[in-house]
Amino acid sequence: MTLNITNTDNFRQIFENIDGGKILDVACGIGQFIEILQNSLRSWDEIFGLDMDDHYVSEARKKFSGDRYRFIRGNSEKIPYQDNIFNLVSISNGLHHINTPELTLKEMKRVLKPGGYLVINEMFSDELTESQISQKLYHHCRVEMDRILGINHFYTYEKNEIIRFAEKLKLSGLLVYEYNEEQNDPLNSETIREYSNKLDFWLEHIRDHEKFDYLRENVRELKERFRKVGITRPPQLVVLGRK
Fold first, then answer.
1. Is pLDDT above 70 for 133?
2. E strand or H helix at 73, and its extent?
3. 81 pLDDT above the threshold of 80
4. Distance between CA 239 and CA 69 in Å, rounded?
5. Element (H, E) at 238
6. Are 141 and 222 in contact (CB under 8 A)?
7. How far is CA 80 from CA 63, 119, 154, 170, in A?
8. Separation CA 235–CA 135 (nearest Å)
9. Who contacts 109 (Cβ-Cβ below 8 Å, separation ≥6)?
10. How many angstroms separate the CA atoms of 23 and 36, rounded?
């Protein structure tokens, strides 16, 4: 099956005609995608967030107050909810943090009601501009450091790999959107300083590791690249289908 990819610069164009009902956001972090959903959907009733990290769950609870929100710690590869209870289940930039994304997606489909919407939003690693390649390389460096620290983190997927994940779920009415958010100047000094400081911060956490010198050189090369070609966020693929 060949899927057409529609370009969009606005999440509301994707979700504005959807009533979200009871929503589960998997690998929710501090709720970045929850904000997008609640501002883009035509309507919604309740939002549940699931994440493995206690810190993220705690921060999400502080950020979203009220009876319409629930946040719990849990494993996305064994979602702690019964079958067929959510109207919309989403995952945003979480597939590359999961050991077996196919299992997580299967679990997402399991807890989704028949006719409900499954949403995958994931950055991709091909067809990038030079400044977007800088962000990809920054991410790869972070992956190396996170793995040393025992954090689940993997390289991002190519566009067709994300689509294949979705196709295996055999959803109906599958739609694919490429989302490019508005970018600042790639050579913006404040942005370059922010990314550079993040690299220095994480590098300090692995100072005693045998790969420290190698990654320190990697960081130096990345900073030089930032100064030459800049850095901007990568595009994302949004895949939407129904159970």
1. yes
2. strand 69-73
3. yes
4. 24
5. strand 236-242
6. yes
7. 23, 19, 24, 23
8. 11
9. 89, 118, 169, 171, 243
10. 13
Which residues are bridge partners to 196 per DSSP? none
* Phi, psi (deg, nearest 5) at residue 167: -60, -35
Q: Alpha-carbon distance 10 to 16, whole Å?
A: 10
Domain membership of residue 212 (yes or no) is no
Residue 141 lies in a domain: no
Rounded to an integer, what is the distance from CA 177 to the centroid of its chain? Answer: 15
- pLDDT of amino acid 9: 80
Element (H, E) at 141: helix 130-148
Q: Is the pTM of this model over 0.90?
A: yes
Number of domains the chain is built from: 1
- Examine residue 10 and state whether it is found in any structural domain, yes or no: yes
- 148 is written with which tokens? 């040393």
C-alpha distances in angstroms, 232 versus 58, 131, 162, 235?
A: 29, 5, 21, 9
In tens, the pLDDT along 174-204 reads 999 998 877 779 999 999 999 999 999 999 9
Q: Which CATH number is 84's domain given?
A: 3.40.50.150
Distance separating alpha carbons of residues 116 and 241, to the nearest angstrom: 8
Relative to beta strand 69-73, strand 172-179 is unpaired
Q: The domain containing residue 117 runs over which residues? A: 5-124+154-182+235-242
